[in-house]
Design a protein that fits this description.
By secondary structure, the protein is an all-alpha fold. The chain has two domains: 142 residues, Cytochrome c-like domain (Cytochrome Bc1 Complex, Chain D, domain 2); 82 residues, Cytochrome Bc1 Complex, Chain D, domain 2. The protein is built from twelve helices and no strands. The longest helix has 13 residues. The two termini are 29 Å apart. The N terminus is likely disordered.
Amino acid sequence: MRHSTYLFCAVALTLAPGAALAQAVPLGDPAQGAELYQQECAACHQIGEGAEHRIGPKLNRIFDRRAGSLEFDGYSEALPRQGRDGLHWDFPRLDAYIANPRSLVSGTNMGYPGLEDAGERADLIAFIRAFSDRPQDIPEAAPTAFAPEVQLPAEVLEIEGDAEYGEFLSASCTTCHQRSGDHAGIPGIVGWPEEDFVVAMHAYKQELRPHQVMQSVAQRLDDEEIAALAAYFRALRRE
């Protein structure tokens, strides 16, 4: 089974909370990790000065934190439960989770498929570590200041979406995305902040995001319709 070694680690950690893993921690390149973070994580997680919870929790000071311990309503039941059983985020556990979230935490809400390359994971974790180790030394340049994928006029971002109209339009989304918030191999959009949803849809509309089906769906929608969908999915809650 793919990533079976990580599944073994997850079981071992649950049975022996706090046990150290005999694993050398590879040195990563935080500059490369910053680029990977933007590609792999930034759509759902913020990190750095002013970071807030989005579709996923903020990642500030994640090292040595108990899993599922933030005040965040998007956790699956499984993650806080494993946290209570002793799961804390150190290098081996973060590495396992990034490699394959469902192998470490069965039932996680995180729809990310995993990052297979160990070197890339080390780079990504090195970047994240900068915001956990010695918090007083957090760099002034906050990663949350990364430019959005598309620069939209203020009037587009300020459109107040009609959630009821969004529900009417949502069939174009729910043929793939689940209203329950379940990922099932496809990223979840339930509870997504409206601005993030709008920016993502316009990125597909301008073919900056390379998914032909999503490009086709987005190009059929006008600004009001995108805002309506954003309002509808933001208002939903995972079952």
